[in-house]
Structure formats: C-alpha cells, structure tokens
Write a structure and sequence with these properties.
elongated; seven-stranded antiparallel β-sheet
Length: 127
C-alpha cells in the first residue's frame, strides 16, 4: 500500500507566453526537487501547457480552453502523472472567474496506469 510521506519541494519555473491570432498559448516548465525525511529525494521535470481560444474576444459567451500537465521523475526516468483538460471559461471579471472543466487523469501506479475521469468547477479569485 502506498502511503503519503511529508516532504519539501523546491521549484524553478520557466514560462513562455505568446498570442498568435486569437489564441493565448502558455508553456510552463518547472524543475522540482523533493526531499523527504523517510524516503529518497526525487528530481522531477513538469510541463504545464494551456491553450485559450478566443482570448481577445470581448463577448461574454463561454470561451473554450485545452490544457495538459505532465509530471515526470528524472532519476527513474518515469512519467508519474498525466492530466488532460478541456473546458470553458464560463465567466470572468477583474476579481472573480469560473471555469467548467473535464480532466482525464492518468496515474502511473507501481504495476499499471490507472485512469480517472474528473469533472469540476474551478473558481478563481484575484486579490
């Protein structure tokens, strides 16, 4: 049985943003160093990518987006988790936003990959 082990994460981010046409594209990469009291340290490389469609549109209609998150562990050269998102930016103001999404989550367990379907409402608050 896998158990949760407390630890510390040290992160280094690099982000690339560009807006071709009416699409907003964001690639975020991060190096992750994880330390644990009762386990070996881990070194990871994660990629988080977003595509926001109709980014320059001022219409209030929901705007579609696609995203992915890929989490890897470099010492063992394994992909630990993959998350694929699709959804709609339902409403956005200067302070609050709501996204409706579907996430296809793949988790690399010790023996095989497990697949989970996740539906949700993401709330964003800007301070």
């Amino acid at each position: 049985m896998n158990t949760w082990i407390a630890g510390h994460n040290y992160l280094l981010y690099g982000i690339l943003l560009f807006n071709p046409g009416n699409v907003k594209i964001r690639f975020a990469n991060r190096m992750v160093y994880k330390t644990f009291k009762n386990a070996d340290s881990q070194l990871g490389f994660d990629n988080l990518s977003n595509l926001d469609f109709f980014a320059r549109s001022t219409n209030a209609i929901p705007k579609p987006f696609l995203s992915d998150e890929i989490f890897t562990e470099l010492k063992s050269m394994t992909v630990q988790q993959v998350r694929l998102y699709g959804g709609l930016h339902i409403w956005k103001s200067k302070l609050i936003g709501f996204d409706l999404f579907y996430c296809d989550l793949f988790v690399n367990c010790i023996v095989d990959w497990k697949n989970y379907n996740v539906y949700g409402l993401n709330t964003k608050i800007n301070l």
